[in-house]
Design brief:
Structural class: mainly alpha
Oligomer: single chain
Shape: rod-shaped
Helix content: over 70%
Number of helices: 8
Largest sheet: none
Mean pLDDT: 85
Low-confidence stretches: none
């Protein structure tokens, strides 16, 4: 006849107090039950290291607390994602598309005639006013408006041509 380990008799007596403590720690009935089960499994797996002359309840509560803290640390950075809203917020468009578009724009600007390129760059990139561009290019405001308009039209056609190709 096989002899039973004293845990067969001692563990069931402690489960109610473990459940109460786990519920206080977690605040959730389901998580508390999982915590108690994990505690009992760990206690059973390490039953040979338990000394019968020591306090079983204190030993189990220590296992329970350590298991709770380990789970807390493990899941500390996890966020519940309802309907994938959090994952959707993490989406980022590929950066290389923007870099390619910028390279195409710079190439198209370089192909503009100097008379159009300078006003377009001064107004579009540096934010100069039409009057400031007219003074820098030594021409009238009307000429600046005309050159910028033609330059923008040529750029939009060049970029549209690149997109269609």
């Amino acid at each position: 006849m096989t002899t039973k380990h004293p845990f067969h008799l001692l563990l069931p007596e402690q489960t109610q107090s473990l459940r109460r403590r786990a519920l206080k720690l977690t605040g959730n009935e389901h998580r508390a039950e999982d915590l108690v089960q994990a505690t009992l499994l760990k206690a059973w797996a390490n039953r040979d290291s338990f000394r019968l002359d020591s306090n079983l309840r204190a030993w189990l509560f220590t296992i329970l607390r350590n298991t709770f803290l380990s789970e807390l640390r493990k899941h500390r950075n996890e966020v519940e994602d309802v309907n994938g809203a959090g994952a959707g917020a993490l989406y980022e468009e590929p950066r290389q598309d923007h870099a390619l578009a910028l390279n195409e724009l710079v190439t198209a600007i370089a192909l503009l005639p100097q008379a159009q390129r300078r006003p377009v760059v001064l107004m579009g990139v540096y934010g100069f006013s039409q009057l400031e561009v007219a003074q820098a290019c030594q021409c009238t405001v009307g000429t600046v408006k005309s050159r910028v308009s033609r330059g923008r039209k040529a750029l939009s056609q060049a970029v549209a041509y690149e997109l269609a190709a």
